[in-house]
Write a structure and sequence with these properties.
The complex is a heterodimer of chains A (448) and B (204). Chain A is an alpha/beta fold. Chain A has 18 helices and ten strands. The longest helix of chain A is centred in the C-terminal third of the chain and has 25 residues. Chain B starts with 5 loop residues before the first helix and ends with a helix. The interface between A and B is large, with 88 and 73 residues.
Chain lengths: 448, 204
């Protein structure tokens, strides 16, 4: 596989120590796409993005151009909300894009506002990322002073304020309607869709486009080089490049921008220029292909290309570009519990199946791990899963407003299907695996 | 330990002025209160309620949803150790256990000297640098047990003065100069965006 001729679209300034400064950005083609766009009709800019077939990079993979087009005609004002609330376990890309190349993101925001006709933009950064916020604040201050943001941008009649906003610790706020609630100063609980598809009724009940940081970071390149040039890269159903974080039991964990479709999971995990193989040359046990919400993949999936439809059909998703590798030493029950515990802690509590279900899933898995598992527990786990996500299928059905609940089902369905014997062993050998008698936990009662 | 200071009130009003609806400024304002006092006090929440035009209960209602807001004093340094999947695989839980014994506290507790509060946290987006942790939301990557102990020694001795006390997040703030400001667009501003209109005129 050769990757040398593939352009680095969004990480081109990552190696520069001063890649975050306005001077470096301008010296490397920065804000030229904005200048070019201002000489084009907004509709023409919109068309370039549609031609690029740019898929949203937040997790769902919805085409950005299509999403923009869902805003109802002639309803004003429209808003742009930038989702910088990166918190899907395993995901590490948006923070880098915000910290290392904030101007690229800002230029992307401006291009989107120009094309869609957004009157104001809100850039929402995860609360736990103050360094990213400092970088964006400094970049915005410089960009305002230089005339790139604000009133009459570069002397044109295009005016928009980009407001830096930030969260305070809640995974669920990465869901777009919850993000809007948070931006309105409320508890970050998702809204029922329909009718509240943000493109129609979003922030302050106005048409609102919510785009992920990485999605918008692609726009300057697309406008500079054309949507067709972007669409020429990658695969049929996934154009361009994509950032992937490869973490866990690999020799060389890292974040890599690779071309969609031509690169495989095996390349990313084993190739010397990427993950470099499994630590100690151990065997691979499983890997998560797209963040904690994604069902696990195994050795037989390694040769799948990084391409949305192929991965969807194989029973998982590329999600947020987070590949977490587990080697043969990994305890599947422990890993499963940790992922479920995450969803249990982060459930917002709005929908009963998720609030109660994830809580019980965690408790049951914890007691299995602690050596207090009951023979009936595995069936009980699947029953609770079924109440959150009927049928436990992929793509998942849901009895909840948002996908957080079904996401907790993914690791259980994967681990139980593949490593059932590990769960069974924990239960049949429960007494031997008990570390100590817990004080606050009643002794298990076996129901006949 | 009270309402926002005059300086912070001014800053709060500036932040409120950027949003079409004042309540949208709630989270940034709560952070401002936490920066001032180390945690979010009831007096500050009442003050924020006045500034934003909602009840104090609504402020608490929002604030209590979010993990980062603390309503009781915490340590000068919040030590947040990630134990989520990528860190768990690379020893995050063992690091947490080590931190518990070094500090003599469990997650959620504060050392008697008021210096450290320990928390086990969810993924903080540094998965390739596992196991990782944050001190007052500043990152520390690939931390070993001896490195953790050294970090605690340095924080105790004041050698790490690059880490401000709990509550202070970004030290660079957005400033929108009056002469460059495009202005707030409220839902009542239903006019066609001028640049879309002019481009349509140019085409016709």
């Amino acid at each position: 596989m050769s990757t040398t001729e593939v352009p680095r679209i969004i990480t081109s300034r990552f190696d520069d120590q001063d890649g975050h400064t306005l001077a470096r950005y301008e010296a490397t083609g920065g804000y030229q796409a904005l200048r070019k766009a201002l000489g084009m009709a907004p509709a023409a800019v919109f068309d370039e993005v549609k031609a690029a077939s740019l898929l949203g990079r937040g997790g769902a993979g919805f085409p950005a151009g299509v999403k923009w087009g869902l805003a109802p005609a002639e309803v004003w004002p429209r808003y742009l909300v930038v989702n910088g609330d990166e918190s899907e376990p395993g995901t590490y890309k948006d923070r880098l894009l915000m910290e290392r190349d904030p101007h690229q993101l800002i230029e992307g925001v401006l291009l989107a506002c120009y094309a869609i006709g957004c009157g104001q933009a809100f850039l929402y950064v995860r609360g736990e990322m103050p360094f990213a916020r400092e970088r964006i604040a400094a970049a915005l201050n410089d960009a305002y002073a230089a005339g790139y943001v604000g009133r009459n941008i570069l002397g044109s009649d295009f005016s928009v304020d980009v407001v830096l906003s930030w969260g305070a610790g809640a995974y669920i706020v990465g869901e777009e309607t919850a993000l809007i609630e948070s931006l309105e100063g409320n508890r970050g609980m998702p809204r029922l869709k329909p009718p509240f598809f943000p493109a129609a009724k979003g922030l302050y009940m106005q048409p609102t486009i919510v785009n992920n940081v990485e999605t918008l970071a692609n726009l300057p390149w697309i406008i500079s080089n054309g949507g067709e040039a972007f669409a020429a890269l990658g695969a049929e159903t996934s154009r361009g490049t994509r950032m992937f974080a490869v973490s866990g039991h690999v020799k060389n964990p890292g974040v890599f921008e690779v071309e969609y479709g031509v690169t495989t999971f095996r390349d990313l995990i084993f190739s010397p220029q990427y993950g470099g193989g499994i630590r100690n040359d151990n065997a691979i046990k499983a890997f998560i292909p797209g963040g904690a919400s994604a069902p696990w993949f195994f050795e037989e999936h390694l040769d799948l290309p990084l391409e949305k439809v192929t991965v969807d059909r194989a029973g998982s998703m590329l999600g947020s570009g987070a590949i977490v590798v587990m080697d043969e030493t990994t305890d599947a029950v422990k890993a499963c519990l940790r992922l479920v515990r995450f969803f249990s802690r982060e459930s917002c509590g709005k929908c009963t199946p998720c609030r109660e279900g994830t809580t019980w899933l965690e408790k049951i898995l914890q007691r299995i791990l602690d050596g207090y598992g009951r023979p009936s527990d595995l069936a009980l786990l699947m029953d609770v899963c079924d109440n959150i996500s009927p049928g436990v299928t992929w793509p998942p059905k849901q009895t909840t407003i948002c996908p957080l609940g079904p996401s907790a089902v993914s690791p259980i369905a994967s681990a139980m299907e593949r490593f059932r014997s590990e769960f069974d062993a924990r239960i049949t050998q429960a007494e031997q695996t008990r570390i100590s008698v817990p004080v606050a936990f009643p002794k298990a009662v076996t129901h006949a | 330990m009270a309402r926002l200071t005059a300086e912070n009130t001014e800053l709060a009003l500036e932040i409120i002025g950027r949003y079409p609806r004042p309540k949208s400024a709630l989270i940034p304002l709560l952070h401002l209160a936490q920066e001032q006092d180390g945690h979010v006090t009831e007096a500050a929440m009442s003050h924020i309620a006045e500034l934003v035009g909602v009840s104090a209960a609504e402020v608490l209602g929002t604030a209590s949803f979010y993990e980062m807001f603390k309503f009781e004093p915490v340590g000068r340094y919040m030590v947040n150790i990630c134990t989520n999947i990528a860190c768990q695989l690379m020893g995050g839980e063992e690091l947490l256990e080590h931190a518990e014994s070094t500090l003599g506290i469990r997650p959620g507790q504060t050392t008697e000297d008021g210096l450290f509060t320990l928390e086990d946290v969810e993924c903080i987006a540094a998965c390739t640098e596992a196991p990782c942790l944050q001190v007052n939301y500043r990152y520390f990557h690939k931390i070993t047990n001896p490195e953790f102990d050294q970090l605690i020694v340095d924080l105790r001795s004041g050698a790490r003065n690059d880490i401000p006390p709990h509550g202070t997040l970004a030290k660079v703030r957005q400033r929108i100069p009056a002469d460059r400001r495009a202005g707030v667009v409220t839902p009542e501003d239903t006019a066609h965006p001028v640049w879309l209109a002019s481009s349509q005129e140019a085409q016709s």
